[in-house]
Every structure is written in C-alpha cells, then in structure tokens.
Amino acid sequence: MFEINLIKTHKYFTIYLLLCFLNLTSQESSIESLANSVVSLKKFEKMQDRHLAISDSFGNINDYRPEFYYLDTVLHKVQAINEKKFEAVIWMSRGNFFLGTGNSFASIEAFRKSIKLWEDINYNSGLCNAYTNLGNTYFYMLDYDKALTYYKTAISYCKKITDVKSNKEGKLANLYNNLGSVYCSMEDFVYGKTYFDLALNVWLKNKDSLSISYIYNNYAQIFTEQKHYDSAKVYYFKALKIKNTYGDLFDKADAHMNIGSVYLKLNNLPLALEYTSKALTFLDTNSYSRHLVNCYNNLNRIYHEKKDYKNELRYFRLYSIAGDSANSKEKISSITKMEMQYEFSKIHLADSIRSMEEIKLKDLKISAKSTQTYFLIFILLLTIVALSLIYSRFKLTKKQKLIIEEKNKEITDSITYAKKIQNSIMPNENYISREMKRLNEKKKA
Fold first, then answer.
1. Nearest-angstrom CA–CA distance, 445 and 442
2. Is residue 293 a contact partner of residue 285, using CB atoms and an 8 Å limit?
3. Residues 332, 335, 341, 343, Cα dihedral to 10°
4. Per-residue b/e over 314-325, b at no fewer than 16 CB within 10 Å?
5. Of the candidates 83, 281, 292, 358, which lies 20 to 30 Å from 375 by C-alpha distance?
C-alpha cells in the first residue's frame, strides 16, 4: 500500500497532557470544563493550541466517547461566540475524528462545513488543509478520481498562501506525495513517480528525514509492483537507514519487514528470515497489532519455504492467535464505532431539528416580510391607479375647457360677423336723422 501523509496540525504539550489525563473522566462536567478552558482563551492561536493538545490527549485513550462529546461541546460553545475561524478548526477535528472511526460520510460533511467557514473568511491555509483531508477521505474510500480532484484543489489554495507560518512548502510536498500515491494505486506509475519526485525535492531541501524515508518506501513499492525486486531493495534499504535513526518502533519494524518481504520474493530465505525476525523485536507481542500479524504471517511463509515445519506450525499458530485477537479488537472497535455513529445520529438529528426550527422561524420572518412587501406594493399600485385617474380627469377637464373656449370663440366670431353684415345692410343712423329733419322742414314750408 502506498503511503499518504496526513495533515499534522496537532501539537504536543506534555505537561498540559498530564494535567488533562489527571482530570479527564467520562463525566460531562469534566468535558464541559475542558471546552470552557479552550473557549475562554479568546485569541485564536491560543484556542487552537489548547484544543489540539486536548485532541491529542484523547487520541491516546482507547475510547471514542470522551473525544466525541468534547468536540460536540466545544463546537456549540464556539458557535455561541461566533468565532468562525476557530469553528472551522473544530469542524476539521470532527472530520478527522469521524474518519478515524470509519464514518466517512460524516467526515465528508464535517470537512465541507469547515470549507464553507474558511471560504467566508478567505483563509487559504485552512482551505488547503480541508481539501487535503477530503482527498484523504476519498483515497481511503478507494474513490481515486475524487481524491485526485480534491488534492489538486488543495494545491491551488496552497499556492495562494502568503502566511510564512503556514508551512506552504511542507503542505505542497504532502500533496505531491499523496497525488503520487493515488496515481500509483491507479497503476499509473509514471505520473506517480513524477509527483513523488516533486515531494522528494521539497523534503530534501527542508531536510525532513522521515518524510524522505516515506518517499523511498513509495519508490520501492513501485518497483515491487513492477516485480523489479532488486531496485525495490535499494530504496527499502535507504528508508531503513533513515528510520533506524529518526523513526519510532513501528517505523523500524515496518522497514525491516519490507526488506524481509523483498528477500522472500527473491527467494533469499536466510536474509528474509534475518530481517523479518529483526522486525519482530520492535513489536509488542501482547498488543496484537496488524504489524505483528503481518510479521507472524511472513515468518510462517519463510519457514514453509525452508520446509521447517515445526517453526512453520509455531508461527502459523501465533499468526492465528494474533489475527483472531486483532480481529476481536477490530470487532470491538467496530461495535464502538457503531455506537458512536448512533450517538452522532442522535445529535445530528437534534441539530437537524434545531436547524429546521431556525428555518421555520426564518420562513415566518420572510413570510411576514413578504406580506408587508405585498401590502406596500398594493398601496403603491393603488396610488398609481388613483394618480392615473386624477391625471386622466385632469386631461379630460382640460380638453373640455379647450372645447368650450373654442365654441365660445366660434359664437363670438359669428356674432361679430353677423353684426358686420347687419351694419352693411342697414343705413347709417346719421343719414336717417338728416333725412327725417329735411322732410319735416319741407312740410312746414
């Protein structure tokens, strides 16, 4: 399996972790106190540091419930103070929590909520992390096309980062490595190696030794898939050298086991036995981890090839016991995960009901606002109609006035004209007076 690098945002504060473990119980009051201790800090950086320290402390105990209730409690407290940047961090933590408990869909939902908050404040570093985690989720779900899409989206945001504290180069290297792992899982080894090369260049520049060893592991895995075992062995030895110096016990066990597996494929049984046996020395034989199961299985196969049936039977029994125990642990873990998913469903349902109530209230407000708007529109239309009627009446009155004035003018003109005609027909008044006077004088004479 090709290795992808997770976004490592958690910071370890040893003294504070000890205090957490001394006070941490499953009681709600203790979790409430932890959540209050985070939110009371006010400043984003301090809130984030303490939250991540608490999250790491939960990761070291084999019970999902306290962390789940802590994340739920601190989320509601942060939402109450409307601190969007820190709320986005909490949603990221919830996404990682659900991814760790196998609830991929809840994980995707949480990462998407984180993305929405990061978008609201235009925070490119947060968007890079959230899209990277979405890519990781789809990678684990074996949906490689979506994993590629989200990793490439993360790269686009990563390139926009200007904050020097955000470790832009380290994020890019992680993404290049993850893209390489996706392409190799799709058996496109050319593209895969190209992206591994890009990641290696950054990590060599930054002298990030363990990350370099992971790239060497991935190179070796490519050669193993192509059955070029001698080339694979070269890179596994390079990884071994680094992990022996900087790695933890699991890193060392893994490095030795990989070399033992290559020697087994090359049928070099003595060296296969040497390196696989060495891997076993780094493992706790009482923990029944998957590393231990794989180690016992490889030893069983080596002794089978050596025809050492006594040891073959011995490691077969150990393999069976470890496998059964690991499966039992996984079954218990699965039951716990199912319980947690049930608990999450209840809280999710409560959140949904609360959201529905908020939506109803919002709808009522919108409805009231709509009614008010319709009323105002009605009044406006009524006013427009009234004004239109008044204007029409005004125009009609004005028209009638013009018609009356026109008629009056016509009548006046007619009277004047008739008078002129009358004057032209009838004799002049002075003339008539003179004639009457002349006739009277004539009678007297």
1. 5
2. no
3. -100
4. ebbebbeebbeb
5. 358
Q: What is the CATH number of the domain that holds 70?
A: 1.25.40
Range of the domain at 43: 1-125
Q: What is the full DSSP assignment across 200-221?
A: HHHHHHHT-HHHHHHHHHHHHH
> Does residue 418 form part of some domain?
no
DSSP state of 423: H
Residue 30 and residue 70: Cα distance in Å, rounded?
9
pLDDT at 358 over 60: no
Answer yes or no: pTM beyond 0.85.
no
**How many residues does the structure list for the chain?**
445
- For residue 283, the SS3 value is coil
Residue with tokens 């929405």: 116
Are 146 and 154 spatial neighbours (Cβ–Cβ below 8 Å)?
no
Q: How many structural domains are present in the chain?
A: 1
CA–CA separation, 435 vs 445, rounded Å? 16
Cα gap 241→255, rounded to integer Å: 9
CA separation for the pair 103, 147 (Å, rounded): 17
CB 174 within 8 A of CB 137: no
pLDDT digits (tens, 9 = 90+) for 248-286: 999 999 999 999 999 999 999 999 999 999 999 999 888
* pLDDT, tens digit (0-9, with 9 covering 90-100), for 32-91: 888 888 888 878 888 888 888 888 777 666 667 788 888 888 899 888 888 889 999 999
> Which three-class secondary structure string do you get for 12-34?
CCHHHHHHHHHHCCCCHHHHHHH
Q: How remote is the C-alpha of 130 from its chain's centroid? A: 5
Nearest to 117 by CA among 153, 155, 91: 91
